[in-house]
Amino acid sequence: MTTIKTNACISTLFCIIVVLSTSVRVSSLQCKGEQNQNVDWFVLYKLPRLSDSGNHLIKEGVAYLYMDSESFAKGWTLSEKDITSNDSIPANTLAPFYNDKIAGDLFWVMYNDQPPNQPAKLNNGHTKGVVIAGETEGFWLIHSVPNFPPEPNTGNETRRSNSNKTENGSEEATSKDIPKGIYAYPSSGKVNGQSFLCISTNEANLNTIGKQLMYNQIIVYRRNLPDSLSNKYSVLTDAANQVRIKKAPYNSKINLYSTSGMEFTSFAKSSKWQKDLYDDFVAPQLDTDLYTETWMNGRGKLPSECNKTRVMNIRAISLQKANVEFHSSRDHSKWAVSADEKKKAHWVCIGDINRADTQFERGGGTVCLNVPDVWKNYKDSVEDVEPCPKPKSKGFIDRVKSWFG
């Protein structure tokens, strides 16, 4: 009798431990810091590969700087970790996707217009990121890295495109060596700089994120949509199923909140909006001039715009914490920073779309935070900007017309 009771107790205790262990793992659906601790948010700058650097991680193109909700007052920190390693900030944050014991029970979606092991997609959203959610919380990770992150073992693959086109001037748009079921960072992503923003959030904000992703026209390459969570997150489910906005307005600005209540402002546009995100939407709405760092190596580059609120292209970047300087042609990041603080505007925006007329035909967006310490570190990194275009000189006929009003 005693043996039976003992076995029953052991069995019950084991079950309790398993349930609690699973609960802890599932409840940790948050952005991660450098020590794998939960953080409310982080920003991360993967540095370009610079062969003349004395730092071997920078020389190999795998170094990154970061600030998070715990450390931002100190400014940028240069990680001693390799972004390809399993204990890097992106790896720890993305770990739930590759935990086969829990990933199948979670709601998640991966989207990228340059998906791993597939050709690039040249229509719909110029967007890259992941969203994951449990019953009460999750996170949204926005990034600029092609062919990333790898597909998990769980979930379902979405329909592949037969297109073999690549975007002019882009990084290697197709990578066929990305493993499945484990965290990995693509070799194509080492060459240039890359940007990341992660926001831990709760259930109340996940459908708000879903709405923005519908405007962004995300291209989903893998998703997992359990029925119970799909019903709970119906708008996010529509985004994961690639439902598009069918009627005007074709742009959207919303506020969303992190787990701790920090406010972020999200800007999103559909391809039907047919305008520049930064000049026609973000700068006027924030009522501030912007410096923008986006991929300028492709066709259709837009010049600095100075007619109303100024939106000026960054030409060179200096990050003193890493002792590096580089031209924007070496940077695939997508970020913007308010140009001054006269209006107490300490905005930093991180997203996934470029300043180019080719992007008028694409969905995409950016998410902004207003934190003075974060703003100062991005603003101080702006080494050089493209000046405003000189006004065109008037011809003889125009001058004659001006004499008569």
TrEMBL record:
GO terms for molecular function: deoxyribonuclease II activity. Residues 145-181 are annotated as: Disordered. One of its GO terms (biological process) is apoptotic DNA fragmentation. Residues 1-28 form the signal peptide. Residues 153-167 have a biased composition (Polar residues). Keywords: Hydrolase, Signal. The keyword Hydrolase applies. Coiled coil: none annotated. The keyword Hydrolase applies. Belongs to the DNase II family. This is Uncharacterized protein. It comes from Trichomalopsis sarcophagae. The lineage of its organism: Eukaryota, Metazoa, Ecdysozoa, Arthropoda, Hexapoda.
